[in-house]
Amino acid sequence: MTIDLRSDTVTKPSEGMRRAMADAEVGDDVLDGDPTTMRLEARLAELLGKDDALFFPTGTMANQAGIILDTRPGTELLLEANAHLVHYEIAGVAALAGVQIRPVTTPDGVLTADLVRAALRPDSPHEPRPSAIAIENTHNAAGGRVMPVATATAIGALAREKQLPLHLDGARLWNAAAALGVPPSDLARPATTVMVAFSKALGCPVGSALAFPKAARRDVWEIRKRLGGGMRQSGILAAAALYALDHNLARIAEDHGNAGRLAAALAGHPHVRPLPPDSNIVMLDLLREADTAEAVVPKLAAQGVRVGKWGHKRLRVVTHLDVSAADVDRAAAVIADVLR
What we know:
The chain is of the alpha/beta class and 340 residues long. It folds into two domains: 15-247, 3-Layer(aba) Sandwich (Aspartate Aminotransferase, domain 2); 251-339, Aspartate Aminotransferase, domain 1 (Alpha-Beta Complex). The protein is built from 14 helices and 13 strands. It has helices at 15-22, 35-48, 59-70, 84-87, 92-97, 113-119, 149-161, 173-180, 184-188, 217-226, 235-247, 252-266, 293-302, 325-339; strands at residues 3-4, 52-56, 76-80, 100-104, 130-136, 166-170, 193-197, 208-212, 272-274, 281-286, 305-306, 308-309, 314-318. The strands form three sheets. Strands 2-8-7-6-5-3-4 form a seven-stranded mixed sheet, sandwiched between helices. A four-stranded antiparallel sheet has the order 9-10-13-12. α7 links the parallel β5 (130-136) and β6 (166-170). The two termini are 22 Å apart.
């Protein structure tokens, strides 16, 4: 049996989730609303401590909708230099929002208020003005790095001081909250708009959402419609998210434990160095000159362990609800053996 650790997006819906989807009460969300989707949106707004929320088919679309709402064409969006919005949304900020990215370099993927303040340009008729700030929690490219509550709060205070909206890319906000032992609302509170995904840590087949101030609902709805995100009987998908909030949210810490278990099993190996994980992502650096990600990934796959390639000398391993502690032990043994 193959152990798939490429991402937490590879999970399959459980039988319980499938039943919930099959039994969902549905309507037409574009015409007059889908009752199950509306229940999800209300619950999510409460979970995040926001006025309102809207269900989206993908996290990228929800992220882009948040940026379009928060910014103006011809201005700058300040965010961490290796953020998902920079590298993995195919220049959507420029193409869809007409906004320039102002990347802020950090040593560890964690943006801070001091770094943002230093990156803000002085007021000038010759330089672009900022129109928003974005943060990411957890930070994907930094190996699932968690932004602490105090750090997010300080950036939120700076955003208010500068009268700038703050967008939170919280695709794995559930993981950040679990890692810190706080409710998601504590991490979402400083932000104007918040994107969360249901198809990663929560194990849903499809779905994300954007939370926002109540007055923005019509604008967000129109942006989603313009981007092609209007769905009809979306309650079938929303039912999966509601099921996940009931059954999968509370167990996310198990994935973090399994990530730490894998990192500990490989610690001290002469040819690979695991980076200590904050959440459910483990980055593995290949130390031997002859080993490259391009060469190692297919060798591991041939032994029944699938991992992600993250650059020439780095592998990415992501634990999730379809991977048990026994699976992690077997995967670690295979990785250790292949690299030996």
